[in-house]
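Tutorial sheet, problem 5. The two components below are modelled jointly, 603 residues in total.
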Amino acid sequence: MKMFMNLLKSPMFVFGAGLFLLTVAVALLGPVFYNVTLDRVGSQYAEPSWQYWLGTDDLGRDYVSLLILGLRSSLYVGFLAGVIATTVGTLLGIYGGFKGGIIDDLLNMVTNLFIVIPSFVVLILISASFKDGRSLTLIGLIIGCTTWTWSARAVRAQAAAIKSRDHISLARINGDGTLAILVKHILPYLLSYVFMVFILQIASGILSESAISMIGLGPLDTQSLGIILNQAKNNGALGDGVWWAFVPSTVMITVIVFALYLINTSMEGVFNPRLRD
Amino acid sequence: MSNPVFEVENLSLHYLTRFGQKIHAVTDVSFQMKQGEILGIAGESGCGKSTLVNGLMGLFIPPLHPTSGDVRVGGESLMNRTPEDVRENVLSRKVSMIPQGAFNALNPTRKVKDIAADVIAAHEHGTSRAASYERLAERFALIFGKDATKILNSYPIQLTAGERQRSVIGISTLLNPQMVIADEPTSALDVSTQKVVIRMIFDLLDKGIFNSMIFITHELPLLRHVADNIAIMYAGEFVEKGTAEQIVFSPKHPYTKALMGAMLSAEPGQKDRKPTAIEGAPPSLAKTIEGCRFAARCPVAKPECTQKKQDIRMFADRLVRCDYAE
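Model answer (structure tokens):
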């Protein structure tokens, strides 16, 4: 609680968190205040006007509606990928880092193996191999399963550094087993760190989804910010000067990721005293 | 010595490196302790004291492995047990330890009472948290008097180094272990706090909270006041073991003499003496050592010392590992 109050003293955190909450609010509450529809409402590529704030797309659909729905999907994919990547990475990292020895070597080898395989290529290949039924959840799962390596690395290093602290040896000589030590003595130490990793994983999940959707391998069952870009690209909107087809969703992605990075950086400043000035 | 409570027989321990190399950190250590006895173990940094401590608790975390020998508490062997068995039945119950740098040994994210209650929970399944807290209040009242409740409800960062140190001792002795091993319990404290901590340890011993104690330190003058017997360790071996008076005032082994010579002491008759350093460094324990381990640094070494293995044997009234002790 005290930590949270300290976070609120950082203007960077307040701004980042505010920005992020705003995007979440738009995604969740948008349909309440705005008439969100996927029906054809105007002519093809109508320019932004008082009626359609951000114009219409090639099918004559309202861009504001598309953006609200796309934002929802992007945030969902980001959270899903973030939760998976952080959980897998934290479990493997904390166990390997604490155990050391051969177990650590093996886990490290697996992590390094995943790191050297270009994850974006794997993402493309897996996505492409699902012809139909490529759902938003599936994309989130795939992103989570290919990006956990960085969190594993980061958490492993922290766990390895903490395991030789005196309070770990006290727990050990008083009869605590590995699980008890991990849960009671190492994880609480790393919680703020794991949370920062989680934030970054959300950001990278959102970016990955946008990228994979933009090249046309995204989910087939919904809208997303990347799919809007994909349609703009396919219809030659960039060449025709139809800026409202790609600028708003690009700005939206940038704003979410920027907000998440602000949150991460400001938390680092609060939780890591060495960075304070 | 009748009915020893703690027996160590020819205990040897080694570290196994990743490349299969064995580092023989402790070699052939034997001793017995009776009820109420305090044994001091002294030696320079890296001589194997802390490794020995792990062995005495039966706590073999790789890369540390037992080579041979036995450790018995109340006649029961601690060797060849599973890690779960050691955790459940040996640690904290039979043998407990006050760790090195104990005032840093409290998890800063938990209250003292929770750290302590965990120890009860790890050994006595089914004890309710409330019952644990009650027991803690009782035990801590013994140590801290009326401050007990305040200490128990504090986070470690809110306590002074001395309070933290005493809390750790309270936690380590919570389950009334038969033997307590204190690994440099006072070396990082200032002199007046040291005194408080030592007095508290003795108090717990007097009250029968634990039966006997091994006190490990590199401060020989402190040991004289604390310990009944002292063993001197060098390169993984006991080189001399006798009563505290014998070791401090009339050391026989050349290493013990050198160690005493290297120490500043306020004892009568030694005040004006200038401390002298021991030249050289201890031998590498990765190789097999043929002769006496101290030979290379020994001021009275004879040529045959580097060849002939020295056994620990009775010399006058104590045990010495040197054929030329005088």
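Marking note: The mean pLDDT of chain B is 86. Full credit if you identified this.
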